Amino acid sequence: MKMRAAVCNKHGKPLEIEEIDVIDPRPGEVLVKVDATAVCQSDLHGIDGDVPGKLPGIAGHETAGHAIKTGEGVHRIKVGDYVCCTTTTVGCGFCDECLAGRRSNCTIHPMMEQAMRQPGRSNSKGEPVSTLAGKVGGFAEYVLLDEYALVKIDESMPVDKACLISCAVISGFGSAITAGVKPFSSAAIIGTGSVGINAIQGTTFLGACPVIAVDMLDSRLEAAKRFGATHMINVNEVPDTIQAVKDLTGGKGADYVFITATTASNALSKQAIEMSSPNGVICRISLGGMTPETMQDIEWMRGLAGFGTSRKFISPMMGGSNIIQDIPNYVKMYQAGRLQLDSLVTGHYPLDKINEAIEKLRSAEALRSIIMM
Ligand SMILES: [Zn+2]
Ligand SMILES: [Zn+2]
């Protein structure tokens, strides 16, 4: 069938609205009518070519919608189900990792098999159109996705908030859970965009105090405060960020440090380690583009964090979230007023105005812009 999609034909250039053919779901796949997709920093990495991806391609991975067709063998999702579309997996449920409750580390479920498949989308020239920043391809009217990437949610959840759960919430809040944040511990969050703000919500919910937000923009730090940060550090206004964190944590450094800044660098990574306590956990959420330099940086951090201390370094994919349980729980928390999502949404755009929404994120004016289908 035909659908409209915002296609990236050239890295770093504006997306182009095109008519794209999408095939019927193959075995194990579901066709989802997109209701809303948020624009995430990882989409920019996909569009700019900082992460591997084939062009032409469709970005967008923070998506919520309704299942309209299911392929052979699909058993968890039914036509009509309201779903969050993710770039991670619910897991097979039976391998050692799944049984241990770490479903995102599932060793059986063939995520790779899906990644190897043809995209099932093609443009008017008959060229295959891939997906960027994950397998969702949410900047389109429909997405074709493995059922294992979908989680059914309650129909009462507003679409423009549900989509945020598919990435920003599970990555930010989920990382706080995976890092094992304990009551009365201290946490520092470097970078207070949408994912950082959800890490702030997670650490706050799990009982950390102080929760220290670190950023270079006062507007973002103000937002961080509204979402639970107890202290704000503007890196441009203090002589020494590491010392500022130590001063707020009795001199020892933060028990948990989350790096969510999109341009993670050696200098930033080193700073994160130095502001952590000797037994601290450093959690790198942002991949900052999965380039060889980034991978080197991660290896380097792992060594530096481990050297002569009992610090731990983790970098879980999508917060290491057990999405099959966590996503419905986040919906419940939102409905109960315990998870703030409303003020994360700073604008709504039709698909035709997607480049405007992207610019708002690039200029750090927006927390989350939502593309409404
Ligand atoms: Zn498994
Ligand atoms: Zn994302």
Describe this protein's structure.
There is one protein chain. The protein has helices spanning 41-48, 96-99, 111-116, 159-179, 194-205, 218-226, 241-248, 266-274, 292-306, 323-335, 354-362; strands at 2-7, 16-22, 29-38, 57-58, 62-70, 82-85, 121-122, 130-131, 142-146, 150-152, 187-190, 211-215, 231-234, 254-259, 276-284, 312-314, 345-350, 368-372. The protein is built from 11 helices and 18 strands. The chain is 31% helix and 25% strand. It is globular. It is an alpha/beta fold and 373 residues long. The model has no long low-confidence stretch (mean pLDDT 92). The strands form 4 sheets. Strands 3, 5, 6, 9, 10, 17 and 18 form a 7-stranded mixed sheet that branches. Strands 13-12-11-14-15-16 form a 6-stranded parallel sheet, with helices on both faces. A 3-stranded antiparallel sheet has the order 1-2-7, with no helix packed on it. α4 (159-179) packs across α5 (194-205), α4 crosses α10 and α8 runs parallel beside α9 (292-306). The structure holds zinc ion (ZN) (2 copies). The site of one zinc ion has 5 residues, from loops.
